[in-house]
User: Fold this.
Amino acid sequence: MFRRHSAASADEPARDNMDVAGSSTAEDGGSAGAGRGPQSRTPSPSGKGHPTPKRSEAAPRRQPFTAPGNRKEASRQARARQRAERARRAEGLRSGDERYLPTKDAGPVRALARDYVDSRRMLSEYYIYLVAVLFVLLILPFAAAKLIVYPLVLAALVTVALEGVITTRRVHKIAEQRFPGERTKGVGFYAFVRSAQIRKLRLPPPRVKRGDKI
Assistant:
């Protein structure tokens, strides 16, 4: 009796261990089976929680540029403003207003060059008239008239060249003396070009009279 009881007592822990292992295995299997079952599957949440919209739905498309309702009227007004602006600039240039002078005429140095030329009577001013006379002599049917044309042309060219050299040097020298800090490059040639223009057609117009001291 004692032997059977002791053997049975020794076998009970082994059964208990087997029962525990079996139950744990069954539980693991059941949980694994439950995870693989169709009813236990749950969709994994996405990052944004909603599908990515299309480009056309994400942002509205840019609408094409629409011109004003009355384009003819807008163009007419724009042209009118441009004409008024050109007329104002032309009037300012004829009156000698410094605000409307182009870059080549602006500044005290260029004003000094204009005053120097306008205060003197130069032969270069009448060069255009001389060219017109020589052209008439060339078309005349007289041989004597054509003989004097070439000497007159040569004399006019030499006179204009000498007068231009003198004017360029004097204007440049006076500008450097009166405006030492200003840019005087090109002022001599500027004065020479003005001296070859007819006085009434010079722009900006003369603001001094002939013989005035500069």
About this structure: Residues 1-40 have pLDDT under 50 and may be disordered. Helices lie at 2-36, 55-58, 71-95, 108-118, 127-139, 143-178, 187-195.
